[in-house]
Amino acid sequence: MTEMTAAAAPLPDVARLSLSDLRAALAAGWRDYRRASMFGGFFAAVYVLIGLGFVIFGAGTVLWTFAFSLAFPLFAPFAAVGLYEVSRRLDRGGAMDWYKILGVVMAERDRQIPWMGAIIVIYVLFWSFLAHMIFALFMGLSVMTNVSSSYDVFLTANGLTMIAVELAVGGVLAFILFSLTVTSLPHLLDKEVDFVTAMLFSLRVVRENLFVMLVWAGGIAVVTLLSMVPLFLGLFVTLPVFGHATWHLYRRVLT
């Protein structure tokens, strides 16, 4: 145990959130981004570079696709911690020092964030396996068709049904992952708790604020998808804003 993990923090109660809390968190996230845009751009670059690497090197190559698919859940939590630390320092009037902020991020490798990354990796692998199983179950021998040269197979009854099921299952799995992580990552930075406790608290936050969190998850999904269209460049703005906003939403959850 390090000095930082000497005493476990008690679990706080969960506040009731409203849509006005989402608006306030986004406004605070935008304010933090404008005040520390260099940090936001730096940490967002992790996501952008992984996305570009996936497209440039991973397209059509199983090995590279697998590598970049694992790179995201391994490195993205640390980038998120960097954004949370920037917001925490702005809240407390702390020094916006590169060395100190990166030092906090690096220190997380000896705490609970790597465990969160491992859980996300396992989850992504299960998700990928399930997606392939659904594809095989619905498409049958159609998997032998070269889908890169013809998409007609997806316009059949089986193809359209498969797409609908993939979207439904993917949506459920995505929301479960969102529920496990929406407050757990900032919680781990802010308090001395283990990753299981942080994830359980995050699930409780979502359960007790289900409608608000559904809106939050949907907004993140839509805006992030649109930000990826111009070569992922929009992520340099949207990811830092959402990252900072997540910190402020987490602070509003605490009572």
List keywords for this structure.
10 helices; mainly alpha; 255 residues
Please provide a written account of the structure.
With 255 residues, the protein is mainly α. The protein is built from ten helices and no strands. The relative contact order is 0.18. The N terminus is likely disordered.
Could you tell me the mean pLDDT?
A: 84
Secondary structure class reads mainly alpha
Residue share in helices? over 70%
Largest sheet: none
How would you sum up the global shape? Answer: globular
Stretches where pLDDT falls below 50 for ≥5 residues?
A: 1-6
Short description:
With 255 residues, the protein is an all-alpha fold. It has helices at residues 19-35, 37-58, 62-92, 98-107, 113-139, 157-181, 184-190, 195-208, 210-227, 235-253.
What topology emerges from the helices and strands here?
Blueprint: H1 19-35, H2 37-58, H3 62-92, H4 98-107, H5 113-139, H6 157-181, H7 184-190, H8 195-208, H9 210-227, H10 235-253
Helix pairs in contact: 1-2, 1-10, 2-3, 2-10, 3-4, 3-5, 3-10, 5-6, 7-8, 8-9, 9-10
